[in-house]
Amino acid sequence: MAQRLPILLNKKPCYDIVFSQNFDDLWLDLEELGIANRRVMIVTDSNVRSLYAEGLLEALQGKCLKACMFSFEAGEEHKTLDTVKEAYKVLIEEGFDRKDLLLAVGGGVVGDVTGYIAATYLRGVDYVQIPTTLLAQADSSIGGKTGVDFDGYKNMVGAFYMPKMVYMNLSVLESLPREQLVSGFGEILKHGLIKDIAYFEWMREHYNEVWMLKYDILEEMIYGSCKIKRGVVERDPMEKGERALLNFGHTIGHAIEKLSDFELSHGTCVGIGIVAASYLSKIQGNITDKEFAMIEQTLAQFGLKTSVEWMDAKEVLAVTKSDKKMVGSKVKFILLETIGKAYIYKELTDEQILEGISYVLES
Ligand code: NAD
């Protein structure tokens, strides 16, 4: 029987996160969402299509009014309004109306794009997240942040729009390339660092078993990560305050991601951003040299890069400051008060930010 984690919003049940070893329970859950009388469109990317989406499409036939698929080229560079526009065209051609349903089958890119299509097509249709990367299972599929990049700026256009369910089949992680697993570890370790030292310690203790992809350990890790994110999302669904803490490592991370032309994965850049933000926390006197070294070592144990080559510190600063996490002319930084507790800080000077950036740039 699949394990479930319910998400409440305004103290009312909003949707469930379902953890499973297969897709067996998906059909019962979809039946409960009334798919028998609805059109269903799977949204996926060019890699996940043949791996999982085609099988799901076949299994859907006969279970709903109509089943179809929209797939786009894999990669962050396709997380754009052009992809959204192509999907709208298919939805119109297939006669989708407001009571129909979208299924996001893929990683964070598919999840963010599908959520945005769902939020905007006919002013909102239902969608379900079926995340297939570690990053999407442990983080991006939870919490209803949807959107696309615009002109190279990350997540510039988007909406808060909650799914009707998140169904994760953990066995799909077996086909995930190592670098994508590593990318997921970036966000997972972030959750421990900002909110839960015990979870961070658990990750440190179990890294060998995690690497062996043992089902029970994976489930415990992903469940723990989702639980931390759930707490934040339940308390601050629209990012009026606390939810911004989830951007730990993202401020400089997004700038590096953009300057790498999205060649470096999101989680990899978050990992480098975490080192920079932890370094800034150290020079603010919040964490010790020893704690900082331990954070760097843990990221490295999980295969994450802790520095980046060929970037210019001033350029990284300029892009950091042009990102949307600005308050007036100040950058909204997330720093560690201690391991397991983060806070928002808007008073870092350009010189201090440059110091953090320079630390992660290989000269
Ligand atoms: P991704 O969606 O690009 O997936 C990475 C690669 O793995 C792709 O090539 C994909 O085709 C492939 N893939 C997916 N599942 C697979 C599987 N089971 N086996 C083999 N290959 C598979 O990237 P991602 O890391 O999943 O997500 C990154 C995105 O998530 C970024 O755009 C980031 O901004 C976003 N994000 C969103 C939130 C949020 O709250 N909405 C949070 C964090 C990150």
User: Bound small molecules, which ones?
Assistant: nicotinamide-adenine-dinucleotide
**Class from secondary-structure proportions:** alpha/beta
The count of strands amounts to 13
Strand order of the largest sheet: 1-2-9-6-5-3-4
Biggest sheet features: 7 strands, mixed
Uncertain segments: none
Fraction of residues in helix: 40-55%
Determine Rg (CA atoms, Å): 20 Å
> How many DSSP H or I helices?
14
C-alpha end-to-end distance: 52 Å
Q: What does the average pLDDT come to?
A: 95
Coarse morphology = globular
Order of helices and strands, N to C? EEHEHEHEHEHEEEHHHHHHHHEEEEH
Provide the β-strand percentage band: 15-25%
Detailed description of the structure:
This protein is an alpha/beta fold and 363 residues long. The strands form four sheets. Strands 1-2-9-6-5-3-4 form a seven-stranded mixed β-sheet, with helices on both faces. The chain has a two-stranded antiparallel ribbon with strand order 7-8. A two-stranded antiparallel sheet has the order 10-11. α6 runs antiparallel to α7. The radius of gyration is 20 Å and the shape is globular. The site of nicotinamide-adenine-dinucleotide has 33 residues, from α2, α4, α5, β8 and α6.
Short note summarizing the structure:
The chain is α/β, with parallel strands linked by helices and 363 residues long. Helices cover 46% and strands 21% of the residues. Strand 3 (39-45), helix 2 and strand 4 (66-72) form a beta-alpha-beta unit.
